[in-house]
């Protein structure tokens, strides 16, 4: 069974997951096995540890062989995550600048009833948070960005869905730390509101990617052909997303 590296946090919704362990030399490694409609065995590692995606028909022996064949890579990546410094938590202060839709947005703080005022005119856009207390800043800011993200996502889905010949799916916002989007035929499209920090072309790629899953719940060549029809420059956008993901504000 061939191995396919999974470097991006996209996938259709998992069909089922099982926690297992395997001995890699003198080290016992826990992993999460996820079986789904896919053709290959894929390994991915993040802050949660080792995750393995496998076809329904793959035997446990095939899965463990794939893990053992990449034991050195797995140990190295697990050690990198273990020693990685926790990202600095963003402090929301007057004058803070955040990336929003590919531009720098200045955050201003003022007294008020926990509402926000957008000013996107000119070359220096601002978002003023009118706060009852400074402690309310994270909640008010997140709500402002979530609302703006939802408006944009609805617009872009309405643009791409007709090109694919599908009905407009239900949209939900997610807050996942390692997944930018997912798709389910039952519950619709899920998009991470933090995409609002990225340029519009990257957001369009994510929207096109998830909409394509309505026709192909996998990452097969046929799936990527559908993505390519919707968004021809998807390879460049995918690479840019990978770079921007590491720089996304944490708060």
UniProtKB/TrEMBL annotation:
Residues 39-242 form the YgjP-like metallopeptidase domain. InterPro entries: UTP_pyrophosphatase-like (IPR053136), YgjP-like_metallopeptidase (IPR002725). It comes from the Bacteria. Gene3D superfamilies: Metalloproteases ('zincins'), catalytic domain (3.30.2010.10). Pfam families: YgjP-like. This is YgjP-like metallopeptidase domain-containing protein. It comes from Candidatus Accumulibacter aalborgensis. The lineage of its organism: Bacteria, Pseudomonadati, Pseudomonadota, Betaproteobacteria, Candidatus Accumulibacter.
């Amino acid at each position: 069974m061939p191995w396919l590296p999974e470097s991006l946090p996209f996938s259709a919704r998992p069909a089922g997951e099982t926690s297992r362990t395997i001995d890699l030399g003198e080290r016992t490694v826990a992993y999460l096995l996820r079986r789904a409609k896919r053709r290959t065995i894929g390994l991915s590692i993040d802050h949660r540890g080792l995750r393995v995606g496998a076809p329904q028909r793959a035997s446990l022996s095939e899965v463990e062989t794939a893990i053992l064949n990449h034991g050195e890579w797995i140990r190295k990546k697990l050690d990198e995550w273990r020693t990685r410094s926790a990202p600095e938590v963003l402090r929301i202060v007057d004058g803070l600048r955040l990336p929003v839709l590919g531009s720098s947005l200045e955050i201003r703080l003022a007294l008020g009833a926990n509402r926000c005022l957008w000013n996107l005119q000119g070359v220096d856009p601002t978002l003023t948070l009118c706060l009852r207390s400074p402690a309310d800043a994270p909640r008010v800011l997140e709500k402002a960005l979530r609302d703006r993200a939802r408006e944009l996502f609805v617009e872009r889905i309405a643009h791409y869905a007709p090109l694919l010949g599908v009905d407009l799916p239900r949209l939900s916002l997610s807050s996942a730390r390692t997944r930018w989007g997912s798709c389910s035929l039952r519950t619709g499209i899920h998009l991470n509101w933090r995409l609002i920090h990225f340029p519009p072309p990257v957001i369009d790629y994510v929207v096109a990617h998830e909409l394509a899953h309505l026709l192909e719940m996998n990452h097969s060549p046929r799936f990527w052909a559908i993505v390519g029809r919707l968004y021809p420059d998807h390879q460049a956008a995918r690479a840019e997303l990978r770079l921007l993901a590491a720089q996304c504000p944490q708060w």
